[in-house]
Amino acid sequence: MEEKVQKRFIRAIIGILFGLSVLLTGLVLCVRPMCASAVREAFIGNAVRLRIFDGINECFPELSSDQGIEIDTMVRNHRQLDQVAEKYLKSIAKAVSSDKEFEAPDIEKNLERLNEDILANLEKFVGSERVQQNRERLLQGLYEAEKNVTDILGELPFFISNFGGDALVVLQLYRILTAGWFQVLMILVAGGFGVLLYWMGRWQMKGIKTIGVAGIVDGVFLGCLIPAMLNGFSLFVTNRILGRSMYLNTSPLRIAGVILCLAGVLLLAVRFYLLRREGRKA
């Protein structure tokens, strides 16, 4: 009896460690897209949107407001702008951590993909032939608009450094959390606890039950509780670091939470089905 209690206690401890490691891994994997989204919203998104229409309106003044809104929405949510923000954050964090001069990252291909998608959207409204006739003029206007934005991003390291220790500490922490080796380590730790938990709870698949429950609990934390907490103090944090009060985009956390919840429910359903099938055979 005492041995069984001891095994249950050890399994419970490992279950808690597994749940915590999965929760922390989910948070770590969401840091990069959340921070990139914040920088994009604060420094890139509006600047790009406001400037690109200068060249577009010169070539196609007949565009309706609805068509302009559709292009505006596409640009504002474009994945390439997130990638631009990620590259700049990585370069800034590297410069701050190593006390070296900031080097602007290569974002030429990101801008090329963004511009091609803008032209593709324009083709829907004015036709492919007219867009091709004005292609060089349109691209020149887009690149000139984006050059102003990259100039703003180039000043970002000096802008952030003016906010002192808080911003510098956050950048150093960002570099560690988004490093590939650290993310792989977190995944391996969580996976190791999961394998150990499964092995210790093989009888009636109790290990799978614990893993499933941990997934659901972690999903609730990542998808609901943590986003609610972040929304509570995101205005203060972003103002201290970026100099602009804004709400953080917690969509990556919500997506991760839904995935973990579904995975947990699926594991519990599979366990229930297998146990029921074994019971029928017996």
Q: What can you tell me about this protein's structure?
A:
The chain is mainly α and 282 residues long. 86% of the residues lie in helices and 0% in strands. The chain contains eleven helices and no strands. Helix 3 crosses helix 8. It is elongated and about 80 Å long.
Tell me, what's the shape? elongated
Q: Which secondary-structure class do the elements indicate? A: mainly alpha
Number of helices: 11
Main β sheet profile: none
Instruction: Note the run of SSEs as H and E.
Output: HHHHHHHHHHH
Features:
single chain, 282 residues, 11 helices, elongated
Concise account of the structure shown:
The protein is mainly α.
Describe how the helices and strands are arranged.
Layout (H helix, E strand, L loop, with lengths): L1 H58 L5 H12 L2 H20 L9 H19 L1 H6 L1 H20 L1 H6 L3 H13 L2 H21 L5 H37 L8 H31 L1
